[in-house]
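Lab meeting, action items carried over

1. Structure of the two-component assembly. Owner: GW. Status: complete.
Input record:
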Amino acid sequence: MEIEVQFFGQLIDKTGKSSIQLNHTDNLVQLKTILFAEFPSLQDSKFVIAVNNKMATYETLIPEHAKIALMPPFSGG
Amino acid sequence: MEKSKEYILRYQRQIILNGFGIVAQEKLANAKILVIGAGGLGCPVLQYLAAVGVGEIGIVDNDQVALSNLNRQILFDQEDIGKDKAIIAAEKLAKQNNLVKIIAFQQNCNQHFALEQFPYYDIIIDATDNFATRYLINDACVLLKKPLVFGAISQFEGQVAVFNVLKDGVSLNYRDLFPVPPKGDEVLSCADGGVLGVLPGMIGLMQAMEAIKIITGIGKVLANELLTYNPLTYENYSIKMVKHPESEKHLPSTLEAFTNLNYQWLCS
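Predicted assembly:
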């Protein structure tokens, strides 16, 4: 019932990981609480969360074995 | 209009391409694209849009060529150091393809410039390197209803997206992903984080490809979708966007509100 959370851009530097496995959690609020507890620097970071390649909103429910992405904005050019 | 022998021969390899043809070529020739930024992303975008025959190309950049640009800003060489980027880029592109019209705007893209120039063009390409300008361009494109091809890089990864194009009844923009910009020191620039020359080349070419798809109708446009690409592994991650509940709240709702917004302060 694990879910995978993948980090992109500078979130990899901030967390020290490119991806982690977590126990399944139902919704984004719970997921954020868990992530912020494990990686406090995420609290000050901007990112969009995608669940199975679709942008998540507050109502999004996380299915089992979901692949989650935390995508920050890039600005370089 | 009957096209010259020169035109037909120059684009012959595209014209004979299955699924492309003279009709698509004509659409390119009639298109007007504004490229904001003649740097790492802008150079490859500009070179290929000129090569494939986009009829009119505007270039916006206020910078001068620096030695540290040359690992990736491939329109420029060591004899251009200190010269105005938009002007030099326009000269080189005009030499590259004498059938297209190139206009140089050696200035920053501010609100006044956006309101004055964006309406003339069919597509706006964001090839800039800072959030203040990116949010300004995004908001202008929403207000003026212009398709926006977004591209950005961070160390070894790049992002590409197309905004303000109606797909499945929905037209989304950058603020649907990130309603507010990060704080000034939150995200690395190329100067701080570094960049390998090839990466902006790849992402810039993807931006050029998106513009060509929009104009000609070939392929599948990345509308309402953010593609993140890592050429170290060729892994890519696509995010299908939805309307963000807070995007409207932060978008200036009128041209006057847009003009009065201090984008530098917003992103500091």
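2. GW to write a short summary for the group page. Key points so far: Residues 6 and 62 of chain A are 15 Å apart (CA to CA). The interface with chain B takes residues 6, 8-10, 44-46, 48, 50, 53-55, 57-58, 69, 71-77 of chain A (CB under 8 Å).
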